Batch of 2 targets.
Target 1
Amino acid sequence: MSLPSQSVHIVFIPLLAQGHMIPLVDMARIFASGGAVATIYTTPVNARRFRTTVDRCGELGMPIQLVEIPFPCEEVGLPIGYENLDILPSPELLAKFYNAMGKLQEPIEKHLREQTTAPSCIISDKYIFWSSETAQRFGVPRFVFHATCCFSVLSAHNVKHSKCSDLITSDMEPFEVPGMPKGFKITKAQLPGTTVRQQDFEVFRGKIQEAEMAAQGVVLNSFAELEHGCIEAYQKAIGKRVWCVGPVSLCNKDESDMFQRGKEASSDAEKCMAWLDSMKPQSVIYACLGSLCRLAPSQLMELGKGLVASQQPFVWVIKRGEGDSELENWLMEERFEERVKERGTVIRGWAPQVAILSHRAIGGFLTHCGWNSALEGVCSGLPMITWPLFSEQFANEALLVDILKIGVRVGTKVPMRWGEETKVGILVREDEIARAIDALVSEDEEGEERRKRAAELGEKARQATQEGGSSHSDVSRVLQYIMAGPTQEAV
Ligand code: UDP
């Protein structure tokens, strides 16, 4: 498509992972409907997942383009088509994957040079550290996108800079982190950075930090009312602007946008939506643990048994390739779906998560606390059962449970490494899952108060994105910053 030449032109470069691409594509749509021109760079396999969404925006008159740059799999020794973290069969291939991502810099810069509309700014994932150099070459600001909340970014920053964990001898002892909202505690074992083996990524992490220091600002998918002062604190800590422009998922207003977001929905999805129509309002628990993890079949069986044991209606999302034949055999032997058909349904593959969470029959969300999922739960005003797996998910859990008081823990205390989920076997037992669900749906005072707080927060999320709301205003501030050029007052 040809882009208007006089506008602010924002270039989006997401990390090739669902939890990073989905929010950046939404963000591009938000800026495009706010008057900017948006270009999103990705690779062919990922473009196929987002093409329909972006084309629909184009039809609505938004100046937004999705540009495909071939992913150099062969050049780095990756099997062809391994273009998204959810396709990588093992973390052993991560170094090659990031190497291939680095090789996108040159063709992206070439493509940018050929455009009639010069870039005005780059918003890129924190992992795309080389885009800092690209921004300098084009003489434009770069804003870093963290695919999580400010609360968890600040907690990691404060742990590092205060060295508060140095004196803690046990990995399992919860400790307070200076400068964080009261009530927040974490253990050494739960700190982010344990997702992949440290030593492999020291150099990479250094580059990410260096590029973040050189950036002009930070853009997050969150909203001020959720962050309990963390935005101001992080802004002060890094001496840069921090803008919250979310929840970005709320830009998906019509059904087709909600239904097809991030990937084509599984063929089970339509049936699930029809089944939800037949269920009582706020009665169903939606259980989905994100796009990346692949739990051990034994752990997935515990989840299935826990859902059954709780007696609560449920939707259970099982990713393709998760548990594979061992889980499928168990489901068959147990006649699982047949036994639960009155009150439970399974989606195999990609669930239309935002559409499901927005359904009036959903009353709770069993989540791994990936930030997008957590925030989508907040948007739907849902209380949550929290089951963090790795990365910053434990900090996100603390925000949901201890600060916002809208969650109930299943009680897992130790993270697993991504790609090594099957090695740890069972971390959460059937009875712990059932107990957490029962606590969440309980009609006692605690349960009622939790539901009330969750509903209020959902309302605040909506208000934040409306005219005059905090996130709506931050979108305008980002655009003003870009238009004013580099002469910005310090934070
Ligand atoms: N998602 C979805 N359907 C699925 C699984 C995930 O739509 O079956 C979406 C979900 O709505 C969220 C994203 O994928 O936007 C996952 O991001 P998150 O940060 O929650 O977790 P991750 O997948 O990165 O662990």
Note: The chain is about 45% helix and 15% strand.
Target 2
Amino acid sequence: MLDLPIWNFDGSSTGQASSENSDVYLHPVALYRDPFTLGNNKIVLCETYKHDGTPSETNNRRTCNEVMKKATDFHPWFGMEQEYTLLDTDNHPYGWPKNGYPGPQGPYYCGVGASRVFGRDIVEAHYRACLYCGINISGTNAEVMPGQWEFQVGPCEGIVMGDDLWVARYLLHRVAEDFNINVTLDPKPMPGDWNGAGMHTNFSTQEMRDANGIVAIERAIDRLSKNHQKHIEAYDPNKGKDNERRLTGLHETSSIFDFSAGVANRGASIRIPRPVSDEKQGYLEDRRPSSNADPYQVSEILVRTVCLEE
Ligand code: ADP
Ligand code: MN
Ligand code: MN
Ligand code: MN
Ligand code: MN
């Protein structure tokens, strides 16, 4: 990493700087194998900095990394379930009839067959690209709404969670482009009786993973319950406005206005998976983050609340 130079680009073309003072600096932070050009070629993940050396507005990695360094002894692990929706180039969900709607939800989740599942070739190509890259991708599934999918990255410790997920998102858009298909991370692409898209975040510390870790899990849930609004504001890029359309209390979500927790409860803010409750150790699942949330913001606030007790 030290061998890679700091570089710069035209930030006025990306809404990150004015045209009179347009240079935005790229600081290399993580290296991946390039699944498109192969061989010795690399993809370099960078942080962005303004001309005066301060992080640009969208650089949430800087503070996340500081928090992860403070919390190294907790060994925080994350597993994020990234849901997304494939769209045709007319921005209509991929595989949906052009004049009307598919049959109601039910047969699509983890489905198989040409009338139930749309875009598996894209999903599989993306999965392979992530594996080649060195991203800790751990699975995929077709979602409840037709044309909607999920991939899971994790468990990843500390800052690696945000790094791997950002590169995995880039690869998804890039791979889908080759199929002439768009990807949206909008948390509620189709209003009405269609599931929205989230980024469930599974989280644990060493203490939670050890014997009788359920005590630490319950302590974490208590801390989370006292910081609900603060977390909601970090769980989408618009301080909760995007998630408002998704966290309605219907379609396997909790209400954005209330905090709740429960074993195996998919209508709660926090779910304790059944096996974790049985074995009294493991992790918790925060079901609130929106599909378009910044994984750096989500992992940072979880560590701040649960580990650093801020
Ligand atoms: P769901 O049943 O909610 O659909 P998934 O199987 O999609 O769950 O995702 C579970 C995620 O939890 C995976 O990304 C996995 O890596 C992650 N995970 C498993 N164990 C832990 C742990 N101890 N700490 C943090 N994340 C974990
Ligand atoms: Mn140039
Ligand atoms: Mn899942
Ligand atoms: Mn899901
Ligand atoms: Mn989940």
Note: The CA atoms of residues 80 and 201 lie 5 Å apart.
